[in-house]
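Ops channel
N.P.: pipeline sanity check, posting one input/output pair.
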């Protein structure tokens, strides 16, 4: 069995959703596709696909093989492209993910210059406010905010993100200034979340004890920009990154409250897979981001600072 050919066929089966679809896309027979899938299952000793008369789905083993095979075949294609063209410059497509706001403000403005410097590279920028799976979604580089679980990813810490609570002076004059986190239950809170409903904000009590406060959502949004805009107009109290509203606070459009109860800063990291570490395009992109941020603090408050590379291998 040609294992690479069989894995290529398997990936096509998954992406087209059927054996016949894979046969059409590869201009081969349905019998040939079926034999290659059967050979893979025999080779690994596991069932890869669940077949019914109406649909085809992956087993857990099949999903694992699909994720690994897709990533491996993508890298092989880029190597073949570089060798066949006789050049050694990084080439191919780079997939990058980041939280929506940070990706828009920190990464997107740097892409034009990166693409200008490296005409053989293309970039897919995925801006989502959820945790992505580097392997399953074939992500080369991911910007993450928050504590990281143990993983095999290579981690580069960039700095720390501080969340603050703020509102417009007009709102505070009308509704009063909260003196304790518990006072927020009587206020109009502007909540950022992936799902609508009440929010849960974390604070410090006495400088040492962490507490969680369930706040009512007078306005819910999955966009921090929308919440900041509403807060400036007097709609209520928002909890947002300090760097996002630094200029608004300095100009007097917003006022910080409950500062003595702020939580410790949250770390910001770049993640990439150990198997990607030797990839010239990944290394090139990470070095470019780090170099750009090191010389031009995008937060304007010194909170983004490149610290170290910490591979967990």
């Amino acid at each position: 069995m040609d294992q690479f050919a069989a894995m290529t066929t398997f990936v096509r089966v998954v992406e087209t959703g059927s054996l016949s679809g894979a046969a059409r896309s590869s201009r081969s027979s349905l019998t040939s596709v079926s034999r290659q899938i059967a050979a893979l299952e025999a080779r690994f000793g596991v069932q890869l696909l669940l077949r019914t008369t109406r649909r085809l789905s992956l087993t857990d083993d099949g999903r694992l093989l699909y994720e690994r095979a897709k990533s491996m075949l993508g890298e092989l294609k880029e190597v073949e492209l570089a060798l066949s063209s006789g050049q050694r410059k990084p080439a191919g497509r780079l997939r990058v993910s980041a939280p929506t706001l940070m990706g828009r403000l920190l990464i997107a403005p740097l892409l034009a210059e990166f693409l200008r410097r490296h005409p053989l590279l293309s970039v897919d920028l995925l801006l989502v406010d959820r945790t992505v799976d580097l392997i399953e979604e074939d992500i080369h580089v991911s910007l993450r905010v928050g504590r990281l679980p143990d993983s095999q990813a290579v981690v580069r810490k960039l700095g720390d993100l501080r969340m603050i609570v703020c509102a417009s002076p007009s709102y505070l004059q009308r509704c009063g200034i909260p003196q304790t986190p518990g006072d927020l239950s009587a206020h109009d809170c502007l909540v950022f979340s992936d799902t609508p409903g009440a929010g849960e904000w974390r604070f410090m009590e006495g400088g040492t004890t962490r507490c969680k406060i369930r706040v009512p959502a007078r306005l819910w949004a999955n966009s921090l920009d929308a919440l900041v805009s509403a807060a400036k107009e007097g709609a209520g109290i928002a909890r947002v990154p300090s760097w996002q509203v630094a200029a608004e606070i300095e100009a007097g459009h917003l006022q910080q409250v409950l500062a003595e109860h702020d939580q410790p800063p949250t770390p910001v990291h770049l993640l990439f897979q150990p198997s990607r570490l030797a990839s010239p395009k990944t290394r090139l992109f990470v070095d470019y981001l780090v170099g750009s941020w090191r010389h031009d603090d995008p937060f304007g408050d010194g909170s983004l600072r490149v610290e170290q590379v910490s591979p967990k291998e």
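N.P.: looks fine end to end. Residues 20 and 30 are 6 Å apart (CA to CA).
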